[in-house]
Amino acid sequence: MKALTRGRKALGPVALGLMVTIAMPVSAQDLSGKTVEFVIPFSESGGSAAWANFFAPLLREHLPGNPTTVVRYRPGAGSTAGANWFQEQTIDDGTLIFGSSGSTQFPYLLGDPRVRYEYRDWQPVLASGTGGVVYLPPDLGERFDGDFDDLQDEFYIYGSQGATTLDLVPLLSFKMLGLDVEPVFGVEGRGDGRLMFERGEANIDYQTSSAYIQNVEPLIEQGLAVPAFTFGALDDAGNIVRDPTFPDLPSFKEVCEATAVCETSGVAWDAWKAFFVAGFAAQKMVFLPGTAPEEVVEMYYTAFEEITGREDFLELAEAELGVYPQLTRTAGQGAYEAAISVPDEAKQYVLDWLAEHYGVTME
């Protein structure tokens, strides 16, 4: 199967309208001669690395004083180690920003005892939505016809950062589809899971959109991988629809509806959707430390507004990240709030499932 086309046409006018908010006065801050460190808590081979490296040079252009902007990697414990480190930082002059992802949000939401960070202590300045694509090796991909009824007798290996990371969404998807999937926990980033797939050590994988575009579409073009489905996207009414970046691929909802054992109603579906929303609607966020003063926050708001307001931004973002809203100020705050809260019933379902299937408890 050829790599599938993408286009901004699939992103509705409401979502596009959210990408740029009303411009505010330029901050009086000046970062001339300084270096901004953009820290992400993952290895340099995954989607967060691609996302951070997309924004870093744009920030250099639009932050006052055009500071050198570098991406630093602090992987470990499925991103928890890096987030715990950031919690202790008090650099308040705008030279330190942190990029989180769903793999940082989920341990926080589930009460993972390794978590020593508090999202509400941080100051969000950008929320980036994204998607995710599940793909298979060619021998399994050629048997996929829109459902997994004929693939449930296979044994799958999946490289995972951990059951309480963003991998929770694909792992729960696999369970609902009736697949026998053995996760190999402990990979430092989704890029490491992809490398397992490329080496033949795993036979099912998923990547967030930016990593999929950069690293998996070339595999598809070479006939080394076949896309199966995306997790989808939310429309304005909160329904799961096709991912606008990959409109030719079915959503998980479509595949679930087509697979006999999978249901799109009930507690499992409600839990899946809740964590999908928490993990993907604002899947990656940029934070300043809680100590940063208002003028530094305003400086970053302004920089991100200028970036997303560029005439070439949609074209640049589509090629690197896919077609998703980039939110700041009030819209970004709303996405941030959705990302760090899930209903109690969904949380309890996931906690029970993690304990039963993986022996993972939050003690």
From TrEMBL:
InterPro entries: BUG, Bug_dom1. Residues 1-28 form the signal peptide. The keyword Signal applies. Keywords: Signal. Transmembrane segments: none annotated. The keyword Signal applies. Belongs to the UPF0065 (bug) family. This is Tricarboxylate transport protein TctC. It comes from Pelagibacterium halotolerans (strain DSM 22347 / JCM 15775 / CGMCC 1.7692 / B2).
